[in-house]
Design goal:
With 154 residues, the chain is α+β, with helices and mostly antiparallel strands. It is built from two helices and seven strands. The strands form two sheets. It has a four-stranded antiparallel sheet with strand order 4-3-6-7, with no helix packed on it. It has a three-stranded antiparallel sheet with strand order 1-2-5, with no helix packed on it.
Length: 154
């Protein structure tokens, strides 16, 4: 039995196999599957009525869950709480501050149905000015605009 070999000495049937596999990927793995879809655009609710209470050195932020219905399959999943902390001696109302994420409050589906308030608690350190803002986010990761800022001098 004589084997037919190509110029590199590889048997012809192996060369044919590699050509067939390559053709398969060219035909079935290349090209567009369909036109690209534009991203779904929607506006998230802004947290309103952000308020606070001080109980000793513990701060309690409170706000109502916004009444919002998103596109199919998209729902409010929680809130990000952002905090800026500056020494009282260096505090300036007009000066820009850097907010950092202080916490994440997930929404309870029961609370969503009954429209209850959301709470966030943390301990404060004396001689600081704290500023807080809250944003809503969805189960797909989109984040809404900032709430009005609440300032606490402690």
């Amino acid at each position: 039995m004589t084997l037919i070999r190509n110029q590199r000495g590889i048997p012809f049937h192996r060369s044919l196999f590699f050509v067939a596999v390559g053709a398969f990927f060219l035909v079935f793995a290349c090209g567009q599957k369909g036109p690209p879809l534009p991203p779904v655009e929607f506006e998230l609710p802004v947290v309103e009525d952000l308020s606070y209470e001080l109980e000793g050195n513990e701060l309690k932020l409170t706000w109502p869950v916004p009444d919002w219905k998103g596109p199919e399959g998209i729902r409010l999943a929680g809130f990000n709480v952002y905090r800026a902390k500056v020494k009282l001696s260096e505090a300036c109302d007009e000066c820009p501050v850097r907010f950092e994420k202080a916490g994440d409050v997930e929404i309870d589906r029961v609370a969503l149905q009954f429209g209850s308030d959301v709470n966030y608690r943390e301990s404060l350190e004396k001689s600081y000015q704290y500023r807080y803002k809250v944003t809503a986010y969805t189960n797909t990761g989109q984040e809404g605009d900032d709430s009005p800022v609440v300032t606490v001098n402690y």
